[in-house]
Specification:
By secondary structure, the chain is α/β, with parallel strands linked by helices. The protein has 5 helices and 11 strands. The strands form 3 sheets. A 7-stranded parallel beta sheet has the order 1-3-5-6-8-10-11, covered by helices on one side. Helix 5 links the parallel strand 10 and strand 11. Helix 2 packs parallel to helix 4, helix 3 packs parallel to helix 4 and helix 4 packs parallel to helix 5. The protein is globular and about 45 Å long.
Length: 186
Amino acid sequence: MAIDEEYPVLEYLIMAQSSEDHSTALVLPETFQAPHLRHLMLLGFALPIRSRLLATVVGLITLSLYMDPSTYFQPSTLLQWISLMPQLEMLLIASLFPVPLHRDVETQLMHTSITTYFTLPNLRWFAFQGGSAYLEAVVSRITTPLLEKFSIEFFKQITFSVPRLAQFMNCNKAPQVRQCQVRVFR
């Protein structure tokens, strides 16, 4: 079955690799479209940067992306995607492997076309698993006025600095934030 066309009634899409071998990236075709998609979960699947799917899912409310080394994407790419998703209510980003050094991520972020903050007006739950540099790059550009639940898990880091995370939390200190969890695994 080919998935390189439009699926006009598709609302839920969950795709996962079936094997433990993550050395080869499985990629959704650039031409795949689902204009009424509301929930997208990709486990070990890569999304092309020029994906028509991401350009047409303005009604997406759940986005869960689990990255392995073969499907890693830069923070600027994630920011470009989510800046086009005003209805997003739940965002989960997980990368359970080491990512580039903090200075490399910062340098890359400065060369992105997104140079200002943008608001995710409906985001209520934001969960992140991975390295602090990646999270810092993302939270340095977004505000989330309706955030209710925030969960962070840092992996495989001896030291880390999170000044932008502190600034993000100060900008989002609204009474509706009911749960904030930070866990560090060494």
